């Protein structure tokens, strides 16, 4: 018999309605010069290699490529707390028996559905509701979904881990009886067999979202709150924008600033950090902008959070800062499970964990779920689709002007260069503001831009 996991702390108080953000509309933005259309057409990957890498010594170029590539490799770390499925306590059943695939085993998991508190259905996890909250939020649960891996497809070199990134025992519905069957199978003995490719479409199932409400950040000197929702990676941007405007009571922005850069921590020169931070905040405040980031408390999103912290200490004017982060990379994400709850969330990170915590200076979070754990990428397409949809919204009906989108680049690796290329290939191109001096990809792009302007 598998041990029962301890009950998750839940707060049954309903989320308070947030006041509308007061947006001050101005005409000035403090930004660097945007690349011209001609320069934009030239700023592609081939130019990066021709203009920059040949000027490096071979060893330096190799080190840069290796370092930046490693930055974006998928993480394979375990969760901080092993998720011993509650399904065992709820008589979870095996939906279908083991399906041999060569010497691989694919196991379909399912969970017994029972009636929980307030007549709600439980699927191997704890749910707590405030009085009447279930009936007042039917639209969110009927519109937004989560994704969970329902097939165990072991990694050839690590048979105790599924290709989705979870340990085998961490799958919902994994019971003692299933463990006995699973332990009898010899996995990964023949390394020459082609490993079946895991995919979101084949190996995950969608079900109504089970995590939305208000995050109450813990562990800091100040108490911050943010609204959040767990959504599937293929959620329609129209539904997300409706949630923001109707349920979260956000005002349509006058400009959308999408910040990209390194995911891992990096240092900024104090002077550069101050100038860029003040420029970003001033642009957001004077134009009534929304700021989009990756949402986690590392890398570029942390630097944005630091700028917001400085702003909050001097002004009561709030800035809508939306973190779009993969659900599967979050430390303590199980604390966020619950429908229309106020969820206490600890931001102190276990130094041994390969996961990340959310940045507590953001005002809203979209937690994007594709069924994987420890991997970035689930959020990329949803974020871009949302940006495009917001761009189509008309802020001046008579002249048909949409919401402008501007990309802001800090540091970063090869994926940031590809992101910039995609922005510049849009029709019309999305303006890209590169913060020179922040390092790596940003400095390369700034160098290439200068070379193309000078005809180099």
At a glance:
This protein has helices at residues 37-42, 45-51, 58-71, 133-136, 138-143, 176-183, 200-203, 237-247, 270-287, 299-314, 380-391, 414-424, 440-453; strands at 99-101, 104-108, 114-115, 121-122, 145-149, 151-152, 154-155, 158-162, 204-208, 211-218, 225-232, 256-261, 290-293, 320-326, 338-346, 364-369, 394-396, 401-402, 405-410, 432-434. The protein is of the alpha/beta class.
Characterization of this structure:
Residues 1-61, 63-136 and 183-194 have low confidence and may be disordered. This protein has 456 residues and is of the alpha/beta class. Helices cover 29% and strands 20% of the residues. The strands form six sheets. Strands 15-10-11-16-14-13-12-19-20 form a nine-stranded mixed sheet, sandwiched between helices. The chain is globular. The protein has helices at residues 37-42, 45-51, 58-71, 133-136, 138-143, 176-183, 200-203, 237-247, 270-287, 299-314, 380-391, 414-424, 440-453; strands at 99-101, 104-108, 114-115, 121-122, 145-149, 151-152, 154-155, 158-162, 204-208, 211-218, 225-232, 256-261, 290-293, 320-326, 338-346, 364-369, 394-396, 401-402, 405-410, 432-434. Among the domains are: 145-185 and 197-206, no CATH class; 209-452, 3-Layer(aba) Sandwich (Rossmann fold), CATH 3.40.50. The protein has 13 helices and 20 strands. Pfam families: LSDAT_euk. Residues 226-455 form the TRPM SLOG domain. This is TRPM SLOG domain-containing protein.
